[in-house]
Amino acid sequence: xxxxxxxxxxxxxxxxxxxxxxxxxxxxxxxxxxxxxxxxxxxxxxxxxxxxxxxxxxxxxxxxxxxxxxxxxxxxxxxxxxxxxxxxxxxxxxxxxxxxxxxxxxxxxxxxxxxxxxxxxxxxxxxxxxxxxxxxxxxxxxxxxxxxxxxxxxxxxxxxxxxxxxxxxxxxxxxxxxxxxxxxxxxxxxxxxxxxxxxxxxxxxxxxxxxxxxxxxxxxxxxxxxxxxxxxxxxxxxxxxxxxxxxxxxxxxxxxxxxxxxxxxxxxxxxxxx
Amino acid sequence: xxxxxxxxxxxxxxxxxxxxxxxxxxxxxxxxxxxxxxxxxxxxxxxxxxxxxxxxxxxxxxxxxxxxxxxxxxxxxxxxxxxxxxxxxxxxxxxxxxxxxxxxxxxxxxxxxxxxxxxxxxxxxxxxxxxxxxxxxxxxxxxxxxxxxxxxxxxxxxxxxxxxxxxxxxxxxxxxxxxxxxxxxxxxxxxxxxxxxxxxxxxxxxxxxxxxxxxxxxxxxxxxxxxxxxxxxxxxxxxxxxxxxxxxxxxxxxxxxxxxxxxxxxxxxxxxxx
Lengths: 274, 274
Prior knowledge:
2 copies of one chain form a homodimer. Chain A is α+β, with helices and mostly antiparallel strands. Chain A contains 6 helices and 10 strands. Chain A is about 20% helix and about 25% strand.
């Protein structure tokens, strides 16, 4: 994040930083991260904050969600030297300028050195599958429709293979630039259908960080296992071999939500290593 | 429903009827009921079925949902003399021609005389309020955002006044053409927030039929009570006087969903009176 560090060095005296929690419907956006040729959530947020604060801003975020992926708890940081605004004013003011598919849910003062991406200790993503012959009309933007009946016990046998420390290099796309592919997945679970929604299944994954498209690839394989095209052990085999030994398609982006990003309570760099 | 009856009389020999359960996101539509100058869900459904069946169709529905109101379980009927299609073909074929915000969830053979509106024994509507200072980005199309903190115990004290047999003439809009305003509301409940959604509250109402905009008016008053502007007894007073004695605004349409319509199992007219 070199540009951020130099930006912070040149900040006006009296600059203050705010940690923003951001919710968005990713349907209209080419992902979180700013791009030169497509509308992104980061750009929408920065433009709203610029209108509010009347100076250029950059808002680094915790997770570079893909095009079409949603967030209930993306985290971003904004720095301003404007003295006439507090955290509540930032939240309300940003929401006044933002389109209604992006909301700043909370703003809190934070350390100027707070780095949403590097300081994150845990990321929680939820992937939701809608398993009914007919797709959902009302929630179609946030559920992956799988029309064929799935063998959920087989999916539930496969999931625990993901849990724990593994080399996930078979579960990333070619564009992934991560140097480390060994990650400790602290949660890989699929709860029973929520009350009143018998066709919905949520997959919850928690890890300090994820590889590019890792969750959509993991869910893609789990659904193929549910379709009976691979045994549950295909997960273990791919993790052990590090190669894509089973054929499957990546799950679409619309089922994925960045639910929450956790930080060490003190916000210090040392703590994040725990 | 005179046009339907005459239509049925003139039906070709071999005509068969199907009961359709229809789910829709009402955001784009001017309600269920066909209109000459605005797109409605009924029109979208009829046009899809006409493309499939290659003859004109009319699809009467159980509930005339307002513009912006959604359904998970609207019920409609279609009649065809086409012999080459079964119920599954109707469902799949309709969905192939429908836009993705309308889905035929099921199709079942039914009596030619089945009248979705008159034969209905019970309608279940759910109204969902989102009570957080910041609106929902992801579910904004299906939640009424109320930013001020609500006194939920007061709302819960007010709700039971609606339950049972009352004259609801104070809870309908001027456009309402119903002759009978005495209804037996068999359910008026507000459950605890669903797991993982602490800001969402669902109001569930069940009755054989409702007056025009009745639920949006009832929820509008309940929210005013939650804001402390009226006591819970304002509900009782309005039901007893039959006049709008308390000032309140009608709840917006996007929080309302027609969840289910129940029919007598035998489908006979006699049974619906129970």
